[in-house]
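Appendix B. Chain record.
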Amino acid sequence: MRVYQEAQKLNVTPKYLMEICIQLGITGKTFVSGLNPEELKLIEGNIKKIQRGKEKIVITGAETIGGLASKMAISASDLIKTLTELNITATMNEKIGLENIQMLCESLGFSYTIQRTKETYYSGKYVDSSAELQKRSPIVTVMGHVDHGKTTILDTIRKTNVAQKEYGQITQKIGAYKVHINTGSIVFIDTPGHEAFSAMRARGAGFTDIVVLVVAADDGVKMQTVEAIDHCKVANVSVIVAINKIDKPNVNPEMVKKQLTEYGLIPEEWGGQTVYVNVSGLTGQNIKELLEIILLMGEMMELKANPDRPAEGTVLESYIHKQKGAVINLIVQNGTLNIGDYFVCGGTCGKVRAMFDEFNNRMDKAGPSTPVEVFGAHETCPPGEKFFGVSSESEAKEKADALKTGNVSKSFVVKKLTLEELQKQIMQGRINEVKVILKMDSNGSKEAIIGSLEKISSQMQNEVKAKLVTVHSGLGSINESDVLLAVSSGAIILGFNVSADNNIEKLAKQYGIEIKTYKIIYDLVEDVKAAMEGTLKPEEILSLSGQALVKKLFKVGKNQVVAGCLVVEGKVVRNSKIKVLRDGKPVFEGALSSLKRFKDNVKEVGINTECGISMENFNDLMEGDIIQSYVIITGEKK
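Structure tokens predicted for this chain:
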């Protein structure tokens, strides 16, 4: 067929058709020369691509092959053929997903725009555009030392938000509530303290925008105040200091400010960036001002979310209701949760059957920064778990099963953290900080250890690739708060003349955190120095093998006592190292000299078995003491 005749058939000018021929490498043609069938097919396909590119089709990612064929005005069989060429197998009524639809459009020359629906968000491929984001309420946690007035302030805020008759009807089960004032709304997380805060942080839950740190004007900075500050620093959240109890006589708020400057909370009026508010939870003085400052800080932080996407949130609490089954209390952080939505939460899933607010009112939907109680989960799940909507029941079950069996990444993944591991990462250039949490037996020890560590850190700053960072230092036994802070910050725990009970050691092992205790300051300092230099040698590690409870004492000679014991955990091993704990505190460390069952010497005694234990150079045992048996392992802790 001649070129000018083909141009008429394709509804283009002969000149345009000749340009297409040149682009496709079909040369030597004139307006009156002929085109063979292969050339005609190539030209026709190219012209269709160009024409398709001029008009955009709208796709969502949820279309079937039949639906796409209708939008593109192409037969479904032709689409399936093109997909086969792209190594994608699909049938007429099958969905191929947004990524494959985009690939198909590009292959056929179609321009397209994506209309965002729940389906496109469920695919997990999209980041919200700035035009889709809307302002949301700040989420606030109140923390501080016990008896400094956290609960009183929260109660006063609640009372100012609702009528007195309604106040007593608040369920208090959600663990959060929304406060409305003239200039906006604030969500308060009602957590018991910084341990709960860091437990949720340890699971990857960045649920708090602002922390209100409560310090009593008549008491000042206390141990829990310092712990709360350190937890906030690790979480990298903004802090507002509420100096409480200013209604009391002879209080000195300036003294509190001076104390807090030692921990980096420098008031704005002193040239710092921390906002301080003098309040009284008892009388309500300046509570309104505190709320307005929170809203102002939230405004400056430009907190935004997209209410038009599926819900994402964090679990605050979960429990079993006798009549209604598993209940999940959560805060929606992004998107909107609706009745009937399918969801996944850790290793469990479900469908939203009912929702309630903090006043026990039914809700049809819950948008960003909304605390809500949800019915419909198959099981309970731990606080801090991520909650997110999915498209179907089958997808919910599939993702929950995958999380349960570890086939996909969980919200929290245990990473082993030891001095040896830190040394390895320093040598490989993967980290530039050695973070430690220090627990000591006295202020004298604290000053000596911190001073020694600061000295070696200063001396070595030009010689090593990493610097030393003390995340937290305090007095007393190693506790749950220390372990959770170590998880959040990526620190190791070093103790001097202090111990951790068995439950804390188990928790640390669960999270992959190393606890190292010392009796000599020099050993502690040298280990840290060696890790920073890269000269730390594999050590002999004491691994707890079992524990025995002292039930009765028998005197078998002038200077020897045998303890009649019941092994309550693991096994006690002959010739092992031992620790004697009394009321959770170590009173002796040494070697086990004799282990007997009845009159026979034995190598080891297992759980729920009675035995006789004696030890070298220690007879001052008491009934109720715990004897811990440790075996030596050379090398890194497993």
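Further analysis of this model is presented in Appendix C.
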